[in-house]
Amino acid sequence: MKTINALTLLLSLFIFQGVHAQSQVYGGTGIRYSLGIETGLATGYLAKKYEAPLGVSAQAEFPITEGILYATTNTGFNNIFVTGTYSHLVDDLHLIPLKAGLKYFYRSNLYLQSEIGVSFLLNKTNCVEGKKAAFLYAPQFGMIFYLHNNNYIDAGLRWESNGKYYKCDHTNNFVGFRVAWGFSL
Questions:
Q1: Is the pTM of this model over 0.90?
Q2: I need a labelling partner for 115 at 20 to 30 A (CA). Which of 38, 50, 62, 133 fits?
């Protein structure tokens, strides 16, 4: 229920912001940077043992076509919390994702973003030939809230899929929400 309420609120903000987008102009040019907080909900097989991710991230956006298309790089730290039922069997997942991708603005403040990369597992536990890294991909849509000249708030909703870390494991997917303060120098 909380997820539905959060999604309804986010979609309402997208619609409201989209109507007023024409009057807002971003004053920054060149490379954009953002520092964010991330959270979400585990889905699929991951949701059986884990609840939600919480983390921080840093992103850089390099203009390909100023104001329309950017190449992105992103890294950070995610902690995916184990449920109480499994806390005596497994630990939280501590991940460092390294991603690169593209961010396309289809309106001045609305975007689609897609990233691929690798996610490193920091707290590897023993489970039949485990590995410390897995392929990941993360499609996302989001909205920019312009503050003034070179500052903005970036809010995005994404689905992130991490590959298997263990032979006895499945892919590790979650729906993520990122809120970031962005700026350009």
A1: no
A2: 50
